[in-house]
Amino acid sequence: MEKEFNYAPYQSTKENIFVTKIAQPDFAYDSTTKIGLGLNASYILDRNKIRYEFFGNFTQIWLANGTYKNKVDYNGRANQMASVGLNVYY
Hints:
This protein has 90 residues and is an alpha+beta fold. 16% of the residues lie in helices and 43% in strands. The protein contains one helix and three strands; from the N terminus they run αβββ. Strands 1-2-3 form a three-stranded antiparallel sheet, with no helix packed on it. Strand 1 (34-47) and strand 2 (50-63) form a beta hairpin. The longest helix has 14 residues, at 17-30. The chain is elongated.
């Protein structure tokens, strides 16, 4: 990944809201080193010829350096993601 952001909007000589509010912060976040913690749990239940798999996971990601923090107003909290689901096999 490039270390420098050099996006120019198509047929535009000036920066616009998309560049300053979305593209630049997104690039800063993507290029920042991150550290994460994940927890996964699942339960498998076999009934006759059908298998049910219940699952869930939770992940937290922290920024490990100041690349993103220095580009935007960052609140310092970790990103948190959770998901649950059911797989059915028959």
